[in-house]
Each structure stands twice: as structure tokens, then as C-alpha cells.
Amino acid sequence: MPSPPRDPAKPVFPPVISDTQAPSSPRTQRTLRRLQSAHTLGARAAIAPQPSLISQQRRAEQRNPSPTRVSALNRSPQRGRANSDATPPLLHQINNLSAARRSGLKKPVFSHGHLSLQQIIREGPTDGDFLGALESARWKVADEGVNSAEDGMSTLRIYVWLVLLDAPIMRTDDYLALIHRGASPAYSKIRNDTFRTLTTDPLFRRRVSEASLIRVLNAIAWKLHDANDDQRRPASRSSSSFRSRGSLTGSASGAGSDPGTYVQGMNVLAAPFLYAARSEAEAFVAFHSLVTRECPAYIRGAMDGVHRGLALVDKVLAIVDPKLSMYLTAKGLSAEIYAFPSVLTLCACTPPLPEVLRLWDFLFAYGPHLNIICIVAQLTIMRGQILQSPSPNKVLRSFPQLNADLVKSVTIGIIKKIPDDVYAEIVSHAL
Questions:
Q1: Where is the composition biased (Pro residues) (predicted)?
Q2: Domains of the chain
């Protein structure tokens, strides 16, 4: 049944009801304690100022070239860890994970390794060991995953995401203030997209209303609009500030009246947050942290980060599977043609949604930039089907159903084959 016509000029803001309030349940107090503990773990910067978890991982990987990454298997995981190397390169952990699974050896020992992921999030770090708790949490996400039902629902996942994204504490009233401002300059663009969000996914449609998605995206648009206004004000700023402002807004191509506040596709990128969260405010703060700190270049007017990511998909595929790469090139198929939605949405456009959530657990633990390699992993998984097709563009119109565990496993194998300079491009392409 076709959707009813919409009047973009007429703002519609349904009242913020139960989906922005704490769930009514006999376990409400336990839920609040869990949230407070998660905030305690995530707000470590207030006690000892540190870059965000993923930022630390990026720096560590840039400081440690491939010889360190490749030889990570030879390092002893049993020794106590000092703060100087408390956030190791990606492969130091996941190579150990792969080796332990293959050989049946004991898993590496971490400071909070004796605790479950739920205990780490609920109780917070012991003895003020924030980095040790975070390292243990990342390991457990990669090794065991986040406990969830078949439909992907989990009372723990959103708190894990908030911690891994280092999302700040935000009062619900602050979110409501953004809602009560009414329609943002990007409102009509948002309304043109929201009714198309994951329309074929019954799980999403059953849990998340279009009104909820509109409110979160409109609040994000206001927040980004305010940030752009702050950078445009000519109050005694250095020339470097103005250069950074120009970088933030980018080209107005495809950006509507206010570049850098909303681009088409952000609706799909926001969808998993609303599905996983227990309130709109939680979804808002996690989504805002992702798009402003981890992939800001994805939402600038020209979406430069997305286009850099697409070029990297082609480059990585040529490195790890030259035959498949040349076949696609001969057919005139570059990643710009078939992978744009997968790059922009961190694979959220590929069903089923529960598998997207599990893949995002991995991406948030070790960096959303790894999505580029996850896309290449999906191409190599379907290489036989592509190579046997005289018209591979038909095959690539929609990727096969996502299998998060398989994609993660193939991704880990691909990382080892990537040269340092290309890996550095992947790490920074979305910034």
C-alpha cells in the first residue's frame, strides 16, 4: 500500500511519549544503575582526560606499522599491561583471538577478563582502571559478542555502544529542548527520507515509528546547524579556525540550504541506533557521537569521506583479490556504482537488522573505518557468484543477507594483507 502524500512544509512533531522515557518495569532501578555505571566508564575523561577509545586505537595503529601488526601473535598476552600500551593496535587483540580459537589455547588475560561484559558495563572499572576495563570490554565484544535475542534485542547493547563511542552524558531535557525548537532547516529533506527507511524490515517497522526517526534526525540537524553557526561567527577567530570551518562545511552540492546538517542516507544510519536504544535520547547521543567524531566527512555537503571510502574499497579489493577486481573493472563496475549505500550506512542497508547490530558491535569496538574492509569481505564471499555472472551489476544491486560472524572472520584475514600506507588511509578516510 503506497505511503500517504506528505506536505514537507507542514512540520509534524508528535508528542515525545514513552519511547523517550525510562521503560516502566520492575527492573527500572537496576536499569538506571546500569546506565550510571556505563556513564561512569564512558566518562573517564572527566577524571583523567584521554582521547576517545577509537581515537586512541587509531593513534596506536599509526604508531605501529605492519611488522608489529603481523608479529602480534608472537607477543605474550599473559603479562600485566601498563597504561602506556593499554590500548593496543587492532591486530594485537584480534590476532590473539583468532589464534586462540584455532589452537584452543588459553585466551589472553586482561585486567577485567574475569568479569562478564555485562558486569563490566554495570559495575564499571575496578580500582579506577578505566583503560583496562575498556580493553577487556573490546575483547569480549570481539570474542563473545553482545548477548542478544534472535531479533537482536538486548538490554546491554546500547550501553556498550555508548561506552565504545565515548558518548557524553546528556540530560533528556537537553534532547527535548532540541525537539521543541520545531522544524530544522533540513526538515523537509528529512521528511522525504524517513518513510522509506528499512521499509522491508518488519522488525524495525514494528519497533521504531517514523515519528521517532523524524525527531532524532531533526534534533541532529539542529545540533549540527548550531555547530556550523558557531564556526561561522566572525568573533576573534584565527585564520586556522576559518580554514577548519571551510573544511567542515565542504561543498554545498547535495546539501540543501544548510550544508553539513543532513544528507540523504542518514536516516538509514540512524535506524539501528533507534532499534537498539531504550530511549530516543540514548539513540540521539550515540548517533551524534558517531557522525561528529568518527565519520564527520560522511555528512558534509559533498560527502567527501564516503567517496574516499569508495575509492578505498576499489584499492583494497585490487590488493586482496586482483582477479575479482580486474573482472569488475572490465565490466565498468567501480565501488562508486554498487557500494555507496554500504559505505555511507556502515552496511546498515544490508539485511537482516540483527546481523547489522552484531557487525556494529565489532565496528564500534575497533573503529567504524573497518567497514571499508567489511565491504571488501562481502565481495570476496560472493566472488564465485560475481565471476560466473555475465552481468555482475545485477548481482551487486543487492548484497546477500549479512552474516556478521563470517564477515568479521574474513575481515580479520584481509587486514593482514593491507600495506601500512593503505591502512592509514582507511583509518583516516572518514575524518
A1: 1-14
A2: 108-144 (no CATH), 151-230+260-294 (1.10.8.270), 304-429 (1.10.472.80)
